[in-house]
Structures are given as C-alpha cells and as structure tokens.
Amino acid sequence: MKNAVPQAASLLLEKLLLLVHVRPLPAGSGGEPPPAAAPDYYDTSCFKRGDLLEVPRTLFIHFGIYLGENRVAHLMPDILPVLTGDRRQIEQVVTNKRLILGVITRTASIRVDTVEDFAYGGSILVNHMDRLFQDKVLGSEEAARRAEKLVGATAYSLLWNNCEHFVTYCRYGAPVSFQTDKFCETLKMIIRDQRSVLASVLVGLASIVCLGLAPSTTLPTIFIPFFLWMAG
C-alpha cells in the first residue's frame, strides 16, 4: 500500500480499527446474529455474477463479490476455522465473538454466504467503486473466478488484508483499501497537528526565556497552542 504507516505502528492501528469493523448486534442477542432476512428481502435479479457489492455500515463498509444464485464471496475475520474442521459449524453466520477473536489472532476465511447473510439487513450498493478504477475493471467472469479460487482460510489484517483488499483484487486486479488509506491519512494529520502544537509551545517558551514575561510573549504561548489543538 502506498504511503503506508511504518510497520511498527501497524499493531496499534489495527487495535484502533478493531471496533469499527465489528458488526453491531441487537441488545440481548448474546453475541448471536439476528434471524436471517426472508429469502426475498433482496432482489437478486439485479445482481450479475462478478458484481462488487458494498454494504455501508455506521463506521465502515463491508464488501463482497456476487457469484450468482444468491451467493456472495466475502472475507471475514473468523477464529473458528482454526479450532475445528466441522464445515457445518464454520458455515454458520459469523458472530461477533468469532469475528473479534479472528481479528485478534489475524485469522479469517473467504466464505460464501447468501446475500441476506452477507448484507446483514443493510442496503447494498452495486459496483460503486468502478468509477474510481475506470478502465481497470476486469471482466465479470474473471472477477467471480478469482473470488472462487480464493475461498477458504486466509491470513487477516485490518490494515493490509481486509475485505476491501479482497474485492479490489478480484474485480480490479490490485488489492487496495481506501478505508485504510483514509484512516492512515487522518492519523498522520492528527500527528502533524500535535507536532505543530508542541512546536508552538516550545517557541513560545523560548521567547519567554529570551524576552521575559510579557503579554506579547505569554499570551501567544497560551492561546496559539490551544487553538491549534482545538482545530486538530
């Protein structure tokens, strides 16, 4: 990924991103997903094999590749494939407990679920990212075949290998994550702002030492860092 933050900071960034990747579950659910939506809740007739599906959440977007026949391939953090080979258990909808443990242990699976289980009750956008890649969009069948070949257990990283990396590789040929890029740029901006505050404090203190206590030196030393911090 271009302009990536140093590798030493990746663990901290992943912890910061953890909460925004957890799907909210209703109160009293005990960590289990709500009942699946009715099979006709989504009109799958408008989806084509190889389409890139997006489900906007409150703080993030979940991505998948439509395979046809009401099936979606998507990458999900999941601890269960490490603990058991029972396909019946693994194929059940991933709960928050499984997801969180998968993020912590950096384990995941590219799984195939129904549109209802994938969307989790959210609205679905179709091929919304095509405008960002223009002539780099691969053929629909090629995208679907790439997704099918990758189905199974995989390593997971909120920064370097998440559901967005998976779908962009399948449909556009290059694994990228705009969500991760945006988060990293925001974090860099915050760090730069904090450095500006620190620099202004040091300059102000130096002016007080050199010129003595006076309104012309003391007030800027107090108010400039304060406003820079508020703006950050």
How would you characterize the overall build of this protein?
The structure is a single chain. With 232 residues, the protein is an alpha+beta fold. The chain has ten helices and six strands; from the N terminus they run H-E-E-E-H-H-H-E-H-E-H-H-E-H-H-H. It has two domains: 51-177, endopeptidase fold (from Nostoc punctiforme), CATH 3.90.1720; 193-231. The model is unreliable at 1-9, 15-31 and 221-232 (pLDDT under 50). It has a six-stranded antiparallel sheet. A hairpin with a 4-residue loop joins strand 1 and strand 2 (61-68). The longest helix is centred in the last third of the chain and has 34 residues, at 178-211. It has helices at residues 10-18, 80-83, 87-90, 96-105, 115-119, 130-133, 140-150, 163-172, 178-211, 215-231; strands at residues 52-56, 61-68, 71-77, 107-114, 125-126, 152-155. The protein is globular, with a radius of gyration of 23 Å. Helix content is 47%, strand content 15%. It comes from Nyctiprogne leucopyga. Its EC number is 2.3.1.135. The chain crosses the membrane at residues 197-230. Keywords: Acyltransferase, Cytoplasm, Endoplasmic reticulum, Endosome, Lipid metabolism, Membrane, Sensory transduction, Signal, Transferase, Transmembrane, Transmembrane helix, Vision. Residues 52-179 form the LRAT domain.
